[in-house]
Amino acid sequence: MTTNHEPIRDIAYLSHIELLTPKPTESLEFFRDLLGMEIVHREGQSVFLRGWGDQQLYSLKLTEEGQAGLGHVGLRAYSQQALERRAQDIEQSGYGIGWSDGDYGHSRSYQFMDADGHVLEVFYEADKYVTPDHLKPGLKNQPQKFSARGASVTQLDHINLFSSNVDADSTFYRNHLGFRLSEQAITDEGKQTTAWLHVTNKSYDLAISLDKSGAQGRFHHAAFKVESAEMVLRAADVFLDNGIFIEAPPNKHVAGQTMFVYVYEPGGNRIEVCSGGFLIYTPDWETVTWTPEERKKGLAWGTPLPSTFHTYGTPNTEK
Amino acid sequence: MTTNHEPIRDIAYLSHIELLTPKPTESLEFFRDLLGMEIVHREGQSVFLRGWGDQQLYSLKLTEEGQAGLGHVGLRAYSQQALERRAQDIEQSGYGIGWSDGDYGHSRSYQFMDADGHVLEVFYEADKYVTPDHLKPGLKNQPQKFSARGASVTQLDHINLFSSNVDADSTFYRNHLGFRLSEQAITDEGKQTTAWLHVTNKSYDLAISLDKSGAQGRFHHAAFKVESAEMVLRAADVFLDNGIFIEAPPNKHVAGQTMFVYVYEPGGNRIEVCSGGFLIYTPDWETVTWTPEERKKGLAWGTPLPSTFHTYGTPNTEK
Amino acid sequence: MTTNHEPIRDIAYLSHIELLTPKPTESLEFFRDLLGMEIVHREGQSVFLRGWGDQQLYSLKLTEEGQAGLGHVGLRAYSQQALERRAQDIEQSGYGIGWSDGDYGHSRSYQFMDADGHVLEVFYEADKYVTPDHLKPGLKNQPQKFSARGASVTQLDHINLFSSNVDADSTFYRNHLGFRLSEQAITDEGKQTTAWLHVTNKSYDLAISLDKSGAQGRFHHAAFKVESAEMVLRAADVFLDNGIFIEAPPNKHVAGQTMFVYVYEPGGNRIEVCSGGFLIYTPDWETVTWTPEERKKGLAWGTPLPSTFHTYGTPNTEK
Amino acid sequence: MTTNHEPIRDIAYLSHIELLTPKPTESLEFFRDLLGMEIVHREGQSVFLRGWGDQQLYSLKLTEEGQAGLGHVGLRAYSQQALERRAQDIEQSGYGIGWSDGDYGHSRSYQFMDADGHVLEVFYEADKYVTPDHLKPGLKNQPQKFSARGASVTQLDHINLFSSNVDADSTFYRNHLGFRLSEQAITDEGKQTTAWLHVTNKSYDLAISLDKSGAQGRFHHAAFKVESAEMVLRAADVFLDNGIFIEAPPNKHVAGQTMFVYVYEPGGNRIEVCSGGFLIYTPDWETVTWTPEERKKGLAWGTPLPSTFHTYGTPNTEK
């Protein structure tokens, strides 16, 4: 049990996400052929995929549905005790849904909803990835061959949720899951418009952005990592050559200082390919706060993101 | 207090090292002009330096001494309680030296020796870096301007100690400091020849290599990080142009999969400039073990490191 | 003399430009400290600079003047005969100014004006760069140490002139100097709005853009090359950190497919740092023509350049 | 006709090579799946392939044969007159074989042998590449989609021939084909051991190395270009993951300063994946000469190439 004054450190990392798509074939082609992920399993209306560097069995569950959006987010606990602690805490907080028997690739998980209604699960016991022969890498400390196909994404990096109340949601993730607030953008009144939170040494594993549409529980984007800024540029070329809509061309974020390119996968979900960004090692990191005045400068090198970046999410409520 | 069955997680990261040099002027020029570090303080026979991305005040204390080698290693605890726990545990284990009043930039620290006799200290309270005006960066979530000088190293990445008994030392770091064993190279008899250990998400923060010379407490190398493989190549060009001895040209390590270049700074200490490598997120990572047979293949792409890599350390006992 | 049906191939490359600046101190600091160029000579109101990879003595003559703009463009002929042929041809065409005694670093040159009134000179005999000891490189087939300072630009890459009549100017460069038209952007009526022309294997050494201001002989920008896309991003960081106005952040051009970042040096001239782009080897390259419809798509990955890119030039007539 | 004192400038570039392989299936898989080339045609025992950036129809003719080696080298003339001039000159010099009716993709060519017996052809008229729909790129000034498969090589860059008499061969290429000598390595007696020659702005399109085996007309290697040093490292990973023999891991050449990785394709021919290197613009470039003493330093950053690099060629006479 953690003591009163020591931080919760029970979540190891963001393990997987489930994305919903009304165009399962086209979405699958996007993730497999253009991002370069591998299919590890099919079950019901779902296909499970992994990046070549994902240490767990899969990082993406792609499920056919009537409209695009987030199915759920999977968080991996550090240990069985850590899982029990989180389940008990969330149960008591009133956000709990309850224990499930698990899903393909992992044992029982505790399911819950965040303040804005996104569905999450936390689990510990999970099946290891057994590399098939044709994907065996040259170095055995690597889970799988470098995919060398399309953007060749390494692994799931982070997610960004849309929320009707960023303050409430970021507080939930901090208080009940042990996320720490790396950076935040606020209004002149001090309300959060974006919160960047981390549980690993990455400067963020989770971002939460203000959804002004009035909707709840919407999804902003999922980001898959590549190994360098150059590979982000390369990914943009792959998207350009293959007719994928590029919402924002490669550029550098202020928060986190990651290089990015944003596209919409054929099912409609916004996907980022990213690289770089700093790691946070210091235990007394002070949250960096960006004012509206500072945010007006746009991205790191001075241009703004397109306006759709602040309004478009899935499900798309503006159709 | 941690429970019996949960891992020690009290060390946040490797904060600084003290290197000894018999050529203080030339060594300082190396770190400042060729690695691109900044001087933050001078005191007695020591100069304190930082990389532009170091989150703490400094990562290198460079001290004039009769011969090259390691002064000490500074570890930052996660919290004051974490510091007290480690001090108490090490005290009881018999490795302790005792509390010091601190050093430039940090408060009281607990000092101790590892199994092979390297001196370390652990501390929590530390002064923050206050960026001088001429080094103020464009983005305030960055501690300092990108240095844009020489190899422009970002920050201290890891250290590698020589040890007369790798098993004993890696056990010490695991049991008393909470390091986890990412990878190891072993003899046919199962004794460790190199151990790679981590406390952050990096695949290693500390490596320990077998010193066959019979000496104890020697230093193998310190590694400073750059942001990409390309910048490792660039660093090699800087070293070539400026007459620095390149012991091993840029190549890719098997363990950790980092890109590297190894040089001797003018004082004689081996310095690595590195990039890349994977992060470990999964809480049930299984130590990767490399056999002598596997190690014969050399580096990732098939050439060996030079033989000096396995014999040369500081102080240089082979003179 | 070339035969009737064979192309003119008398110009070797773009050797240097003279830029005028009303802020000579600040401009010099920009080129030396932020682009990483070296001063090779000072004479009168001029400073002569070179990139570390420039094969000639200098590529930039920076001259104090009341307002920013282009002094002149220096073209190097392939041989003494080639120079005589060009001088004779231009003399006959009516564009000639006449022979000069040369300038610092090169012998007599033939001076002339293009159709829009930009001043150029063509010369052959030139002094070689003698590398001073402190800049001697590790490899003697490199003219100078890698500068490892600021953006560390390699060399002058290309220039872009503003012209009141692009068709007339591109015809002049093709007919009298042997430039070939790699790509062009045209209006619906077929008039050129930009022409990209090459004399080397680069896809362009010279671009000419439509100046709608009514002015003549204005300068659009000069581009200095770095070795990779990543170094363009790095240059943008250097500009951001040092308060240089970034007109257009790193992105990829459609024409030539170069990565770029555009800034205004303190004197007001637009400067590009660029990398990449394709080389043209095939002797029967067909000019690629971009229609207004195609140009609407913006840059390679889908965003437009800022509107100032199409209006701002030096001297700045819009003040 | 060129005048007495002006250089021959009749060859535009190295257009294609024909490689012989005793393992046509495995070799084809190597070039298509691991280098990422596209098949454009099959005819008899040959398959014709191209890199995504090749401006001509194909750059590699892969032909089944009893043993590995060079079939022939294809050079593209600048014009029909240039072709006639070269044919006439070579015919008179006694090296000529005679006119052929052409091959897949190009019209009549003049065939000849260099001093060491390698077969070459020079031609001008050639079919253009018509991009099939599934390979149409996003930008029409690019011949084909970026391949995004394996090493994704851009195009054929240069070839290296083994020769029993480098001086004789380099003289042949200079006097009869207009190649210029960029760099050379010589013995203490002044005899060439390697010659690097160019016809484009690249620092070399052709290298000739001393074959001490006594054999004649052997092949050393062909190099395919990628866009950055990072992609050379990436190529090495692809080779490692797929069991291709890496003769020399990524490193930097002294001559030309190119980054490289050398492998043997399954048929036995040495293949290089390269990037970078400088361009030669200055018309009065002075040949850089490397002495045996200087060559002892090895590669740019100080290690030697493996000894096989100086002995192994195809056909392999040492079996």
Automatic annotation (TrEMBL), chains A, B, C, D:
Domain of life: Bacteria
Keyword entries, A-Z: Aromatic hydrocarbons catabolism, Dioxygenase, Iron, Metal-binding, Oxidoreductase
Domain VOC intervals: 13-125, 155-276
A GO molecular-function annotation: ferrous iron binding
PROSITE patterns per record: EXTRADIOL_DIOXYGENAS, VOC
One Pfam family it belongs to: Glyoxalase
Cofactor(s) recorded in Swiss-Prot or TrEMBL: Fe(2+)
Family: Belongs to the extradiol ring-cleavage dioxygenase family.
Protein name: Catechol 2,3-dioxygenase
Native organism: Neobacillus bataviensis
Lineage of origin: Bacteria, Bacillati, Bacillota, Bacilli, Bacillales
